[in-house]
């Protein structure tokens, strides 16, 4: 089961109008999509995307009952291409991105994301054979590459020590189970944080790397502005500081006007007018939501409207 996070807040921020065209770039199990559909009239369109085959299966099931829904099994970095294929370029009234992984991805051991239940060490949101799994990557990557991923994507202070342990252990036996990786990280980790499994940061880091999550976000943000209609809105829910930093910077740059190269003296006519208007300063879930759904704890919703 996936409980949608910041559901009412995100739907309100999109200000769905009945005849509009909307995109849910991260369908998951469709919690947000259903809320958008509830506000859409019979003329409205909702195009949904997900890279996960299980999510897409559920989306197709829903589309079978609701002809306003169109489904694309793609990475959201192909947003502009797919919007163009549907003839909707510049006509999109709202885009929602609810980033990261869904609860089923984390909870089903066979998907290999979690350290709480042992499973194959996979972590691909789209388990396509051509794309390396976490086990494939850990078998080949150099020690310093592993350390850099753990540090940059997990903000793991003990990245070097953990990377060394991984390389040592894989010489003895390939690391192909989530449980084994969790044990290796836990025994190499010198400073366990209270209330947090010592492998939390490492698992997050490897997942982000395997799925190229930050590259995907940077790409979809740029394309969003291109596909939106003037007055169209973009709503993004992030779950950790690396995601939120990208979103916040992008929104701020759009609201300020184009960035100028360093060293260029700023004159009034060198500044392009802003492309975006910020709709909030980052909204967090209520205490009631966090109590009911602890996974929402770290969520932050940002929204912006396209001005030109
Ligand atoms: C937090 S869940 C979304 C949950 C959804 N809002 C709901 O209410 O059920 C994130 C979803 O986005 C998908 N996803 C993450 N990154 C993606 C990307 N780059 N392209 C397409 N889908 C992606 C994941 O597969 C996952 O299903």
Unreliable segments (pLDDT under 50, ≥5 consecutive)? none
Any idea what the shape is?
Answer: globular
Integer average pLDDT: 94
Annotation field: number of helices? 13
| H/E series | HEHEHEHEHHHHHHHEHEHE
Distance between the termini: 40 Å
Attached small molecules: S-adenosylmethionine
Number of strands: 7
Derived structural class = alpha/beta
- Our Rg estimate from Cα atoms comes to 21 Å
Within the largest sheet, what's the order of strands? 3-2-1-4-5-7-6
Largest sheet: 7 strands, mixed
Which percent range describes the beta-strand content? 5-15%
Can you tell me about this structure?
There is one protein chain. This protein is an alpha/beta fold. Helix content is 44%, strand content 14%. The protein contains 13 helices and seven strands. Helix 7 (143-154) packs across helix 10, helix 8 (159-172) crosses helix 9 (178-188) and helix 11 runs parallel beside helix 12 (241-256). Bound molecules: S-adenosylmethionine. S-adenosylmethionine binds at residues 2, 4, 26, 28-32, 49-52, 55, 75-76, 98, 100-102, 125, 216.
Layout of helices and strands, plus pairs?
Elements: H1 7-14, E1 21-24, H2 31-39, E2 45-50, H3 53-65, E3 69-73, H4 79-85, E4 92-98, H5 103-107, H6 134-140, H7 143-154, H8 159-172, H9 178-188, H10 200-210, H11 213-227, E5 228-238, H12 241-256, E6 276-278, H13 287-292, E7 300-306
Parallel strand pairs: 1-2, 1-4, 2-3, 4-5
Antiparallel strand pairs: 5-7, 6-7
The structure holds S-adenosylmethionine.
